[in-house]
Design a protein that fits this description.
The chain is of the alpha/beta class. It is built from 13 helices and ten strands. It has a single domain, classed as TIM Barrel (Alpha-Beta Barrel). The strands form two sheets. The protein has an eight-stranded parallel beta barrel, surrounded by five helices. Strands 8-9 form a two-stranded antiparallel sheet. Strand 4, helix 7 and strand 5 form a beta-alpha-beta unit. The model has no long low-confidence stretch (mean pLDDT 96).
Length: 353
């Protein structure tokens, strides 16, 4: 077993135009002061990283690492969630997701997808140049509008969607393999890969690709009413990244798991700051430690109530307190005698009759 690394911080929800959150150096100082030791870096945010330059420029990549190391912080993963989302978009979402693309590409799904693929390729190369071996992402969504089979969708529609999804991702998985990088898909409602069943369907179509991994986020599983502890037992070999994010589901006589189109504050299922929700984090950290998870515990703050700076401050302490420093010996080892066949036979009563 090994001790999980952390606390780490996902930067997406904290970068802004206001100091200290507008520059990598100053946000690193702020985060280090709270106790964070790593960043999951979003490649879409130029304030954090110029991914195209990182993919090609050793000196720039080294300067990023040096900026963070002055504050005792490393890069645990890069995040290409937006690019992954744009790699596979059902036309129903074209206008909504255009905000993730550069203004010049909006309204042009073909150009937008090509840009997203280039972003993912740069993200993979940037990981390798930075010495980071995990790129977190979304799968995109071709089939998601049909997640509930009413009206019944045409026979073969889901199969066709997943065939195409696999076709788009397989070259990227191969590229990631060539660079020694895992692609960690966050299983997330709104994506075609949103639970174990959909991940398995995808994995079969990419030939069980060794670089297809999972970003484990229990908040999405709690809201889907999944057994997220059992999920760790089943998929631990595929878990490459971990978002430490809390959630709650408060049963309602008016709305269910789909939320009634309500805002987050009004939904029965909603995200909360660490410790304010219902996720069993002692169970999660225990399962991950037992299964020898070798990655980072990274806070992703998304709470409909608490201020983000309070969530970050409390979250660093929460993660640090839940990381299990694994034992280097069995607690009853001193009572265990060396193997002695004659003694074992005596205990079992063998050879005495």
């Amino acid at each position: 077993m090994r001790t999980i690394k952390g606390p780490g911080l996902m930067l997406s929800q904290f970068m802004s135009d206001q100091p200290p959150f507008n520059r990598l150096d100053t946000i690193a100082g702020w985060a280090a002061g709270l106790g964070y030791k790593s960043f999951m870096m979003p490649i879409h945010d130029i304030r954090a990283i110029d991914v195209a330059r990182t993919a090609r420029d050793d000196a720039y990549a080294a300067s990023l690492k040096d900026t963070l190391s002055r504050h005792g912080i490393v890069i645990s993963e890069l995040s290409a969630h937006r690019a992954g989302q744009l790699l596979a978009v059902n036309p129903a979402f074209d206008d909504v997701v255009d905000v993730f693309a550069p203004p010049a590409l909006r309204g042009n799904p073909t150009a937008r997808r090509a840009w997203a693929e280039e972003q993912l390729r740069d993200g993979i190369a940037a990981c390798a140049r930075l010495g980071v071996n995990r790129l977190a992402t979304f799968s995109g969504a071709l089939a998601w509008p049909y997640f509930y089979p009413w009206p019944p969708h045409p026979v073969g529609l889901i199969e066709a969607a997943f065939d195409e999804l696999a076709r788009r991702w397989l070259p990227l998985l191969d590229l990631a393999d060539a660079h020694g990088v895992d692609l960690c898909f966050e299983l997330h409602p709104g994506e075609d890969l949103h639970d174990g069943a959909t991940f398995d369907r995808f994995l079969d179509l990419v030939g069980g690709h060794a670089r297809a991994k999972i970003l484990f986020d229990p908040s999405h599983m709690l809201i889907q009413h999944m057994d997220y502890l059992g999920f760790i037992d089943r998929y631990h070999a595929r878990i490459g990244a971990f978002h430490v994010k809390d959630a709650e589901f408060v049963k309602s006589d008016r709305a269910g798991v789909y939320g009634g189109f309500g805002d987050w504050l009004e939904r029965p299922g909603r995200f909360r700051s660490l410790g304010d929700g219902q996720v069993d984090f002692p169970g999660i950290f225990s399962r991950l430690a037992a299964h020898d998870y070798d990655g980072w515990a990274v806070l992703e703050w998304e709470c409909c109530l608490k201020h983000p700076e309070d969530g970050a401050r409390e979250g660093a302490r929460f993660i640090a307190e839940h990381i299990i420093r694994v034992t280097d010996r069995e607690f009853d080892a001193v009572l265990r005698a060396k193997p002695d066949r004659a003694r074992l036979d005596r205990i079992l009563g063998l050879g005495s009759s």
